[in-house]
Amino acid sequence: MPEVKSMFREVLPKQGQLSMEDVPTMVLCKPKLLPLKSVTLEKLEKMQQEAQEAIRQQELAQKEKQESTAG
């Protein structure tokens, strides 16, 4: 890699303190909290539970109907 010549010459003091400029660094932000389940997923689960409950009700009604006709 070719060296880039700077128009400024680096000067280091022979005695005393050496100070450096702050170098900007990357700052991490707080993580965003995401819901474990999305609203859409919750709606789908609710619809599925309602459908399963409706099927259970139909099965119970069918059983009762069969028992009443058999008995």
UniProtKB/TrEMBL annotation:
Residues 61-71 have a biased composition (Basic and acidic residues). Residues 51-71 are annotated as: Disordered. Residues 51-60 have a biased composition (Low complexity). One of its GO terms (cellular component) is BBSome. InterPro entries: BBIP10. GO terms for biological process: cilium assembly; receptor localization to non-motile cilium. It comes from the Eukaryota. Pfam families: BBIP10. This is BBSome-interacting protein 1. It comes from Megalops atlanticus.
